[in-house]
Design a protein that fits this description.
Elements: E1 8-9, E2 15-16, E3 20-23, E4 33-36, E5 39-42, E6 49-58, E7 65-73, E8 88-89, E9 94-97, E10 110-113, E11 123-125, E12 130-133, E13 139-149, E14 156-165, E15 167-168, E16 172-178, E17 183-186, E18 190-191, E19 200-203, E20 213-215, E21 220-223, E22 229-238, E23 245-254, H1 277-307
Parallel strand pairs: 8-14, 16-23
Antiparallel strand pairs: 1-2, 3-6, 4-5, 6-7, 9-12, 10-13, 11-12, 13-14, 15-18, 17-21, 19-22, 20-21, 22-23
Amino acid sequence: KSIKNAAAFDENGKLSSDIEYKLVENSVLPEGLELKDGIISGTAKAAPGTYFFTVEASKEGKTSATLDFIVKVKAYSISYEYVPLDDMTIGKPVNVSVANATTDDGIQIKYALKDGDSLPKGLVLSSMGLISGIPQRAYNDFEFTIVASGDLAIPKEVTYSVNVAGVVFDDAKFENLIIGKDYSFKLSAAANNGSESRIYYELKEGSSLPRGMKLLADGTLFGSGLDWGTQTFTVVAKSEGNVEVEATVTMSFYTIFETPVDEPPAAGDGAGCGASVNGNIFAVLLPAVFAVGGIMAINKIRIRRNKK
């Protein structure tokens, strides 16, 4: 906003435009605004209210003049309240609106997920506040936060919680496993829709288990890994009357010399630390080398003594 309305005339009565504008001492603009070359600019960050300040207009050789200004800072506001969401069902289309934010300032409101948040797998959120899609996984109390925002308004957040009925089967990670050591884990899926059908597990077509590991129909994953590194595979949980669901399983194997301290228990013992394949080889070979070396040294000593 320009405030360059001061006027100065030279000795010939000619209008001069090179006038300097500055705030008088102890006068300040609302936070976020600045005065430069007779123009007030910026984005107000001050609290809503009425602010007063005084500007001095000056020109060399002329008597300066001051003028008082009044600025009103107004804040656009959004109101966004929580409304419970109905339960969803895996495999069934969803079209539900969360666009219940309101404003008295006539601004357009847009909706987005809070950074780092996500919807149940298979669903998307439009900027108009519509959640749509087909849920691909079941969840208990799945939480996500939606942000309602508009130009010049402070954004408002609402956290929602929703159940997706079906068979709940979460991704699983098994880390710090030692190569060559026996392990046994139980994958666990459960229906949250009242179904009592037995759940069976199988490897998804095109996916493969780590070498040395096996998967039973009851979800038992057992064996001893043979390859170093992190490997992932997909398991399918099936039960009569329910939609098939998938989970990604991650297993990380190390040699005994690289394994972190908090190694999971081995199959059948619940705790303890066993040697890996590579560990056994080194544990056997190194003493053998020392033993042979010792024999050779002894033989040399005996030969030298005999020579003497």
